Amino acid sequence: EAQVTQNPRYLITVTGKKLTVTCSQNMNHEYMSWYRQDPGLGLRQIYYSMNVEVTDKGDVPEGYKVSRKEKRNFPLILESPSPNQTSLYFCASSLLLPQGWRTDTQYFGPGTRLTVL
Amino acid sequence: SQKIEQNSEALNIQEGKTATLTCNYTNYSPAYLQWYRQDPGRGPVFLLLIRENEKEKRKERLKVTFDTTLKQSLFHITASQPADSATYLCALPGGAGNMLTFGGGTRLMVKP
Predict the structure, then answer these.
(1) Among the four A61, A84, B92, B112, which has the fewest Cβ within 10 Å?
(2) Option in B43, B98, B105 nearest A103 (CB)
(3) Residue B95: helix, strand or coil by DSSP?
């Protein structure tokens, strides 16, 4: 089954304790991205990657890191989490259209609900 | 700056009626526009994509229009059902690189 998986689904942590949220897709998609969703602010893109070893900042990258060492995996790293990073996080993936720079339909993971105390 | 607006107020309609949701955008010239459905606590699910040279697209009970002059897309669900209750998001490519920017979504409630 084609899918995007995220782990963990729920996480409660404390300020400053490094954490990683994993994301994996089995559709051989070039493009992967991370979003956070907050009430009243909608979905905002954190980072995206157009292929292995190619990553770039989205709208709200501060406090986050990503890596893309393999095509299927795109982990989100919070080196020193703070309470304002409490949010619902989604990973997404898609093909890149032949035009190269335009993404196709995005497939979203189930979400990770993070609480930073 | 680029901006996408969807009605933040919930839309309440009776089962069987047609629901119409609006997506307006400014400072964009998107090559396409997408609509997604999101259920509470779940990731968005792609519904339809309409390109700039298409006026209308249909999929089962769904219909999307795209008016690049008005900078607006309308999303219609005909013969609505309580199972259609969800938040509907529009999304456009734009911004730096390959970013896909989402509107804030409109919550649809279909009452039996």
Answers:
(1) B112
(2) B98
(3) coil
